[in-house]
Amino acid sequence: MQARLNRLAPAALLLLLACQPRSAAPVYGPWEEGLTLTYENPSLPQPLRTAERLQFRVARASLSPSGPTLVRLTLSNAHGQQNLLFKHEGGGIAMLDDQGNVVAQPLPAGFQNLSRWTDRGIEYRVIGRSTWEGASILPETSDPVGLWIETRTPDGIQRRTLFLPNLGEVESRIYRDGAWVAVNRLVARGFTDLPTSKRS
Description:
Layout: H1 2-18, E1 35-40, H2 48-51, E2 54-64, E3 67-77, E4 80-89, E5 92-96, E6 102-107, E7 116-119, E8 122-131, E9 145-152, E10 158-164, E11 168-176, E12 179-191
Antiparallel strand pairs: 1-2, 1-12, 2-3, 3-4, 4-5, 5-6, 7-8, 8-9, 9-10, 10-11, 11-12
């Protein structure tokens, strides 16, 4: 009897794994509720660099068997906060307004198979895969390898952004005075809960 159970255990494990939901494509944005990401601009001097930090927190996420569909983020800084809504589809990410209209599409569906695309006058180009130099702040389970995407606005501003799976942007650089200067970098990652509201 024990021998039979030993033979069935691996088969049961394989069946269980086969039934787990799998994302059809990597998710290049934050989607786990409570995930909080803090960014700063390394080109600013201290103490302004710390004072101008940005914090993104995943307030709510709608999930399907293939991954997140709608993700609401709260953006906070020293001057206040703002709610942002993102739609995930086919590995791509679109920013929506309050009426559900797309206002920006930084990553179109299937962008991993594209080399270039244009959205609202902004030209996008995939630079390639790279390991993030700042990955030491991430847990060991995080994938440190992401994609660099370059953008060029109609007025000629060039920006390169590194996107990591399940985090999205971890570093951005702007081409300034003949060099690529880091202007946004992830400096902290963790989970926070919203305060519990008191009811009378």
